[in-house]
Amino acid sequence: MMDRDKIFVAYGSDGLEGARRLLEASGAAALFEPGMRVGLKPNLVVAKPASSGATTSPQVVAGVVEFLRDLGVRDVTVMEGAWAGDSTVRAWQACGYRELEKKYGVRLQDLKSDKTRGVLAEGLRLEVCVSPLEVDRLVNMPVLKGHCQTMMTCALKNLKGCLPDSEKRRFHSIGLHKPIAALNTVFHPDLILVDSLCGDITFEEGGNPVEMNRLILGTDPVKVDAYGASLLGIPLSEIEHLTLAERMGVGSSEILPDTVTELSRDGQQPLAKHGALPRAARHLARHVDARNACSICYAGLIHALYRLDGQGAPREAPNKIHIGQGFKGIRDKGVGVGDCAGGFETRVRGCPPKAEDILRVLRVLRGFHAAQGTPLTDSS
Ligand code: SF4
């Protein structure tokens, strides 16, 4: 059995290689035996490619399929139902899953036409799809991204794709947060592999993608989502479905110093492309002086600035925020984000730093400018 207290993280833009590396390093092979029926539940919410920030990359799915084939597991089905406004088959095509089908023989089980079953969960009667309940192993493969109603979406909310369309609509009429949490007492994925290569900063349907170049693996959906929230700079208290799921006993949000194992980052990290920022984040980039910043570092800063902006922060930053390998060894006044810019007077440690840590320091700065004159302290 895998340890529910552990989370594994791999960095880089290669989804296939990253997924394989994570699965091998985490000991996930112990979950599978030849001849098992395995269901993969990606996020194919809309007919938009992964580069839009909405859907799970087919490369990450390919990494899981190859890993399973090496273990002798060949009965692998992708199980998903796009949101009520789109067709799963259209999403399958637009997201590049036809190529997976051709190369590996992976089938789509469109959950929109699946058999359903009524279940009682936390006092709610829910109508759920049957197929994901009947496989030997279920692998949840969400995208880590923002969401306009639930703040973020990751492992817990991704299971909403295991509902018929009528029930997806009804979830909104009965409050969304509690039914999402309750749904996680019905489905118990054996493994969670989060695609955090490129997630939308604001909406689940994409359009404002931020490259984060990271994959996350775990087995406790509450812990995985809590870790994801820290990367987006969202306090857990603002994610109602997550706090409810924890209260229902789905998992634990506790992240201890030894919870996260980061796999070694061999080779060059992809650098941030400053010309390709999402619409929602473009004005934020004016606050940043980036020199050879890794995309994962830059993404954390953009998420933090976005959260701060949403809280009424001034749009004009009095100081530039420095980030990137080009600031290594430079000592100066001002703000540095990441270990490379650790020589600045105020700095955020980490390689890469988390958005929640960046946000903490930026809030202090905002307080400083409002107060007009309190000296900045070392926030490392
Ligand atoms: S601290 Fe430097 S090396 Fe580390 S992620 Fe940021 S820019 Fe890259």
What does this structure look like?
By secondary structure, the protein is of the alpha/beta class. It has two domains: 256 residues, LarA, N-terminal domain (Rossmann fold, 3-Layer(aba) Sandwich); 96 residues, no CATH class. Strand 13, helix 11 and strand 14 form a beta-alpha-beta unit. The C terminus is likely disordered. It binds iron/sulfur cluster (SF4).
Give the topology.
Blueprint: E1 7-11, H1 15-26, E2 37-42, H2 58-70, E3 75-80, H3 88-94, H4 97-104, E4 107-110, E5 116-121, E6 124-129, H5 131-134, E7 137-141, E8 145-147, E9 151-153, H6 155-158, H7 165-173, H8 177-183, E10 191-200, E11 209-218, H9 221-232, H10 240-247, E12 260-262, E13 288-290, H11 295-310, E14 321-323, E15 332-337, E16 344-348, H12 355-371
Parallel strand pairs: 1-12, 2-3, 2-7, 3-4, 7-10, 13-14, 14-15, 15-16
Antiparallel strand pairs: 1-11, 5-6, 8-9, 10-11
Helix pairs in contact: 1-2, 8-10, 11-12
Brief description of this entry?
This protein has 380 residues and is α/β, with parallel strands linked by helices. The protein has 12 helices and 16 strands. Helix 8 (177-183) crosses helix 10 (240-247).
Cα end-to-end separation: 37 Å
Architecture per CATH nomenclature, i.e. the level-2 architecture of the largest domain: 3-Layer(aba) Sandwich
Largest sheet: 8 strands, mixed
Number of helices: 12
What percent strand?
Answer: 15-25%
What's the order of the H and E elements? EHEHEHHEEEHEEEHHHEEHHEEHEEEH
CATH topology of the largest domain: Rossmann fold
Strand order of the largest sheet: 4-3-2-7-10-11-1-12
- Taken together, the total number of domains comes to 2
Q: What's the rounded overall pLDDT mean?
A: 90
> In angstroms, what is the radius of gyration?
21 Å
Helix/strand-derived category reads: alpha/beta
Form type: globular
Number of strands: 16
- Helix percentage: 25-40%
Can you say what the CATH homologous superfamily of the largest domain is? Answer: LarA, N-terminal domain
**What's the CATH class label of the largest domain?**
Alpha Beta
